[in-house]
Amino acid sequence: MELGTIHWYPGHMVKARKMVQENLKLVDVAVELLDARIPISSRNPNIDEILGGKPRITVLNKADLADRAQTEKWKLHFLEERGCPCIPIDSNAGKGINYLISAAQDLAAAVIERLVAKGRKPRPVRLMMVGIPNVGKSSLINRLAGRGSTRTGDRPGMTRGKQWIRVGKGLEMLDTPGILWPKFEDPEVGFRLAVTGAIKDEIINIEQVTIRLIQILAVSEPEKILARYKLEELDEDPSEILRKIGIKRGCLVSGGNVDTLKTAAIVLNEFRGGKIGLFTLDRI
Ligand SMILES: Nc1nc2c(ncn2[C@@H]2O[C@H](COP(=O)(O)OP(=O)(O)OP(=O)(O)O)[C@@H](O)[C@H]2O)c(=O)[nH]1
Ligand SMILES: [Mg+2]
After folding, report:
1. DSSP assignment letter at 135
2. Cβ distance 159 to 177 under 8 Å?
3. In angstroms, rounded to a whole number, what is the distance separating the alpha carbons of residues 156 and 121?
4. Could you identify the atom of ligand 1 that is nearest to the CA of residue 139?
5. CATH superfamily of the domain spanning 2-175
6. What is the pLDDT of residues 148-171, one digit of tens each?
7. Where, residue-wise, is CATH 3.40.50.300 in the chain?
8. Rounded Cα–Cα distance for residues 43 and 3 (Å)
9. For residues 102, 166, 20 and 72, what is the CA-based torsion angle, rounded to 10 degrees?
């Protein structure tokens, strides 16, 4: 796929990175959100350099859409590799949120204690959410705040500027826009970011991305594709599988041809919504 060579790094991404670095001084803990379906591909390769020595929590968000056993393994992996808490979370349902709150309070306790020792009043623990577009930073904050404090949406680029949100429970959050990095060394990373929704749909080739997805799923979990689309068997050629799905779903254009773009959009949406099954694309 050609994604890796597209010049799609927009100016606001550069600004977002600067903003994260400037705001880092204001917070006690950085919460790095990774997409549980692609914990490696959704990781900014410069994140260690960006965050420096700031206490950190890794969140594997959208854990409800990922393979459970894989998420457990990734959790242990990050815990060992980074020596900081790693917490699987479903921000829509609120699962895992309490672990995040206590981990944040533990990490910030020393900072707050130092303030108090200097005779200052204790203040709320300040956290900053960082992660790629559409990973669920704003959703997680809303879940913590228990209300719609910050805008969310099922496409990347929802959050434009920074925003402080008082969460209660002694916490304050800084929401930031998603950051992506200028180019992918590995086109497969580009594919995984596209398929999980981190890159704007307008600049990806939906049909190509979906055909590649079908190709992967047809090998790793054929029974899920067969069941979801009520197919009897899977063709060798993933484009042909897409065509058959189109017929099943009645995506036809005049002359009886299949509208493959429309079919691809349906399959991609169903994948992103977990309707085909739970998948982890970055396997450990
Ligand atoms: N299934 C599932 N969906 C989630 C979860 N967290 C967020 N979402 C969905 O993912 C989409 C993006 O969520 P946002 O909170 O807007 O993501 P963001 O990281 O703030 O995105 P930007 O502001 O664009 O960088 C929304 O449609 C959310 O409903 C989760 O844990 N599970
Ligand atoms: Mg946001």
Report:
1. S
2. yes
3. 39
4. 15
5. P-loop containing nucleotide triphosphate hydrolases (3.40.50.300)
6. 677 788 888 887 777 888 887 788
7. 2-175
8. 17
9. 30
Cβ(173)–Cβ(164) below 8 Å:
yes
What tokens were used for 115?
A: 């303030």
The CATH classification of domain 205-272, taken from the options 1.10.1580.10, 3.40.50.880, 1.10.150.20, 1.10.287.80: 1.10.1580.10
The H-or-E segment that residue 104 falls in is helix 97-117
Q: How far apart are CA 183 and CA 212, in angstroms?
A: 20
State which H helix or E strand residue 23 sits in. Answer: helix 11-23
What is d(CA 62, CA 47) in angstroms, rounded to the nearest whole number? Answer: 20
Go through the chain and tell me how many residues it has: 284
Distance CA 82, CA 80 (A): 6
Ligand 1: which of 64, 139, 159 to mutate, judged by most atoms within 8 Å of the beta carbon? 139
pLDDT in tens, 234-253: 999 999 999 999 999 999 99
- Per-residue pLDDT tens for 73-116? 999 999 999 889 999 999 999 999 999 999 998 998 888 888 88
* Ranges of CATH 1.10.1580.10 domains, the chain: 205-272
Task: Provide residues with CB under 6 Å of ligand 1.
Answer: 61-62, 64-65, 90-92, 131, 133-139, 152-154, 156-159, 177-178
Scanning 134-236, the segments in alpha helix (DSSP H) are 137-145, 187-196, 206-220, 222-228
CA dihedral 208, 211, 213, 218 (to 10 degrees): -160
pLDDT at 9 > cutoff 80: no
